[in-house]
Amino acid sequence: MTDYAIDIQHVVKRYDEHVAVRDLSLQVPRGAVYGLLGPNGAGKTTTIRMILDIIEPDQGSISLFGQPHRTAGILDRVGYLPEERGLYKKMQVRRVLRFLAELKGVDQRTADARIEEWLERFQLKTAEKDWGDAKVDELSRGMQQKVQFIGTLLHDPELVILDEPFSGLDPINAQALKDTVVALRQKGKTVIFSTHVMDNAERICDSVCIIARGEKVLDGQVAAVKAEHGVRNVALALDGGSRGAVDAVLADRSLVSRADDQNQYFEIELAPGADAQELLRRVVAGGTTLRRFELIQPSLQQIFLDRVGATGVELGVSGHG
Amino acid sequence: MGKMLVVFKREYLERVRSKWFLVATFLGPVFMGLITVLPIVLAARTKSSSNLSNVVVLDATGTDLGQRVAHALQATTPGSPAPQVRVVMADKLSAEEDRATQQVVNREVQGFLVLNDSTLLGRSLTYAGRNATSLVDVESITAMVRQSLLDMRLEKEGIDPARVAMLTAVKLNATTEKITDKGREAGGGMSSFFFAYGIAFVLYFMIAIYGQNMMRGVMEEKTTRVAEVVISSAKPDALLAGKILGVGLVAITQVVIWIAAGIAMYRVRAPLLARFGVSAAAASGISIPAVSVSAGLALLAFFLLGFIFYASLFAAVGAMVSSQEDVQQAAMPVTLLLVSSIVFMQPVLINPASTMAKVMSWLPFSAPIIMPLRMALISVSWLEIGGTLAGVALGCLAAIWLSARIYRVGLLMYGKRPSLAELVKWIRMA
User: pLDDT band for position A135 (50/70/90)?
Assistant: First the structure.
C-alpha cells in the first residue's frame, strides 16, 4: 500500500513528428488536489490519456493506487472529465447517466438512486421541472456541463481527473465545480486537474507539477514551490503623478532582471544579488511618486514564466494537449 | 465482457426506442401487405366493375362484323342486354360518333366502338369511352374484334364456325416444378425467381441501412466526444463489439417482426381480402414460399456474417472522419463493395450456376447476398454452403481485425481525413 494515487515513472510518448511526453515522472499523493500545469500542447492531455490507458506509453510505467494501471477494474475507481466534452445528444439525461455509471460497474439500482441525488444537488431536478427526463440536446450548455460532471462522479471515484475543467464553464458552474472539488478533498478523494490558467491552480491545488514541451519543469507542494523561488519579486504601483525616471531604473539589468509593465502597476523580478531597498531608493530619487512598494511571493504564473519562458509557450502550441 | 454488455444494451435499447425504428418496423408489413394485396384487389375491382356490353357499336364495314362483336361482348356479362349496333354509312360516321359521344357524356353508355374498312383489313379499330384507359378492357375488346373478324373470314372461305371454334381453342398453362436434392417440389419458375430476388434485395437493404446506421453512430460518438469518456471506462474493442452486436440485434428484431407479421397476415388473408371484395379463390393466389429450417438457418447465418463484415468496415469509416462532409467520400470503398453484389445480381439470377456466380459466392463481400440468391434459385450443395459461410466468417475476422485497429486510433484523431498512407500507419500503430 503506497501513499500515491498515481505514480508515473519515466514515461515517454512519441508521435511521428514530435515527442509529446519525454521521460516524465510524477507522484500524486492520495487525498491531494493536484494541478497539472502547462501551456497548451505541453503534454497534459497525453499524460492524462496514458494514465487512463486510452493511449499506451512507449516507455515507462504507470501505477494507480499502488497497482499497475492495467489491472482489471482499477479504472472503475477513476472518474474522468475530458477537455472536449460531449454526451449522446438524443438520449434522455437519466439514461445517459445510467449508462455512464454502468460502464464503471455500478449496478442499475445504485446508479438510479445516486442520479436522483445528484440531479437535485445540481438543480436539474426541482419542484417545477425535472430535466432528467429531457433529452440531452434540450438542455442549455450550462446544464449539459452539469450532467457531464455528474457522469464523472456517479460511481464515487477515489481519483477524479479533470482535464481543463474550467474551459467553457460559466461563472456559476465554475463556482459549483470549485465547491465540488473542495467537497471531494474533504471526503479524502484525490483530485487531479490540468489547466493552463495558473490563477485557478494557485487557489485550489495542494501540489502542482508544471510541464512544458513534454518535460517536467518542477513539482511539489504549492507553498514549497513558492518558497523555493524566494522573495525576488516586487510589486510597484505609481500614484498617477509623475512617472519620473522609473523606466530608466527598471531598464537597469544589474538591478531588475524582468519587469511586467502594466502602465500604473509593475511586477518586478529582482536581478540576482540585487537589493530591493536599493531599487526603492533609486525609484524615489528619480522623482517617481509611489502608492505601493511591496515584496511579494511570486505567483505560479511568474514561476512558470521564469522557468519555462515565453518560448515554451510558443513551441508548445502544436499538437493536442 | 461486462462493459461490452453495457454498450450492447445501450445500442440496442436506444435504437429500438427510436421513432425511426417504430415507424419502419410497423409500416413495413403494412407496405408489404399493400403491394401484395393491391394488385389482386385492383384486378378484382376491374373485372367486376366494367360492363363491356354497355357500349354502342358503330359498324361502317357493310358486313355483319358489328353483330358478331356485339354478340361476343354480350357473352362477357351474362344477363345484360346486347350492345346496340348501328350500321352507318362511311360518310355519316363522324355525325354518328358525335351522337355516341353525347350518349357517353350523358352516361347512357360507357363507350363506343368504331368498325370501318380499316378494321375489315385487319389494321385498326377505334374505341372511345370512359374506360378507355383501362388496358384490360381495351385488350378484351380488341381480342373480341380480332376473333370475330377471324371467324368471319374463315366462314367466307367455307369453314364451319363450330369447327373453327374447336380448332382454334388453344389455351396453354405452364405448370412448373423445381427439382432439388429432395426431388420434385411445387414452385419454381417465376415464383422462386421473385422469391430469390426479394431475399437478396432485403438482405442488401438491411446490410446497407444498418451498416450506415452503425457508421453514423460511431461518427456521433466521435464528433460529440462521448467516445473519450466511454473508452476511459471500456476498451475500444469492447465498445466496437458491443455496438456491432447491438445494432445487429436491432436488425434481427426488425426482420423477425416483419416475418411474423407476414405470416400472420398470410393466415388471415381470406377474411382480410374479403373486406376488399376479393373472392377466396383469388386470395389463394398468394403463397408463402416454403423455406426449410436448415435453409432458414443458413440464410440467417449469411445475414449475420454479412452484417458483421460490413458493420465493422462502416464503423472504421465512422471512426476515420470528423465531419459530415467527409463521410460519404470515405464510405465510398465500402459502399462500392456492397453495391457490387447488387450489380451482379441480374446475371446471377439469369444463370445461377455460372462460373461468375460461383466465384462471387466465395468472396466474403458478395457471398452474403449472392449465396442466398443462388440457394433460392437452384439447389446448392451443403458443402458449398458450409464452405462459403466459412469464407465469409474468415472475411469477418479480417474486417474486424482491420477495423478495430483503425477504430482505436481514429476515435481520438480529429481534423482532416487520413490518407491511405496514414491509414496504414494507424493500422500498424494500434
Answer: very high
Cell of B46: 376491374
What's the pLDDT score for residue B210? 93
Mean pLDDT comparison of B50-54, B115-119, B189-193, highest-scoring range = B115-119
Strand order, beta sheet including B111-115: B84-87, B55-59, B111-115, B126-129
Sign of dihedral through CA atoms B300, B304, B307, B309? negative
Candidate from B6, B224, B425 with C-beta closest to A102:
B6
Whether chain A has a CB inside 8 Å of the CB on B232: the answer is yes
Q: What is the mean pLDDT of residues B168-187?
A: 64
Closest CA–CA distance from residue B8 to any residue of chain A (Å): 11
- Classified as helix, coil or strand, A71 is coil
- Structure confidence at residue B48 (pLDDT): 46
- Which residue is it, cell 463556482? A175
CB contact under 8 A, B226 and A84: no
Per-residue model confidence (pLDDT) at position B183: 62
Instruction: Tell me the range of A117-131, A257-271, B368-382 where mean pLDDT is highest.
Output: A117-131
Q: Is residue B57 a contact partner of residue B84, using CB atoms and an 8 Å limit?
A: yes
Determine the Cα–Cα distance for residues B335 and B313; give it in Å rounded to an integer.
Answer: 10
Closest chain A residue to the Cα of B18, Cα to Cα: A90
Q: Which chain B residues have a beta carbon less than 8 Å from that of A160?
A: none
Q: In chain B, which among 12-71 make CB contacts under 8 A with chain A?
A: 13-14, 18
Query: Each residue of B195-253: pLDDT tens digit?
Result: 788 888 888 989 999 999 999 999 989 888 888 899 888 888 899 999 999 999 999 99
Q: Write the pLDDT tens digit of every residue in B335-347.
A: 999 998 888 888 8
Say whether A151 and B229 touch across the interface (CB within 8 A). Answer: yes
Spell out which residues of chain B touch residue A47, defining contact as CB-CB under 8 Å. Answer: none
Compute the radius of gyration of chain B from its Cα atoms: 31
B7 close to B230: Cβ distance less than 8 angstroms: yes
- The predicted model gives B79-83 an average pLDDT of 76
Q: Any idea which of A250-254, B239-243, B333-337, B390-394 has the lowest mean pLDDT?
A: A250-254
The CA–CA distances, whole Å, from A18 to A12, A13, A316, B229 equal 11, 9, 11, 26
| Closest residue in chain A to residue B422, using alpha carbons only | A16
Q: How confident is the model at residue A65 (pLDDT cuts 50, 70, 90)?
A: very high
Decide if B10 and A78 are in contact by the 8 Å CB cutoff: no
Is this prediction's pTM over 0.95? no
CA distance A168 to chain B (A): 15
Is the pLDDT at A298 greater than 70? The verdict is yes
Residue B179 has pLDDT above 80, yes or no: no
Rounded to 5 degrees, φ, ψ at A300 are -60, -35
Helix, coil or strand: residue A34: strand
Q: Do B229 and A100 touch (CB under 8 A)?
A: yes
CB-nearest to B226 from A52, A53, A88 is A88
Closest-approach residue (CA) in chain B for A75? B233
In single-letter form, the type of residue at position A24 comes to: L
- Where are the alpha helices (H) located in B224-289, listed in sequence order? 226-231, 236-267, 269-275, 280-283
Give the residue on A whose Cα is nearest the Cα of B236: A54
Residue of B nearest to A16 (CA): B425
Chain B hits for A163, Cβ within 8 Å = none
B254 backbone dihedrals φ, ψ, rounded to 5°: -65, -45
Bin A207: left if φ > 0, else alpha if -120 < ψ < 50, else beta.
beta
Asked whether the beta carbons of A222 and A208 are under 8 A apart, the reply is yes
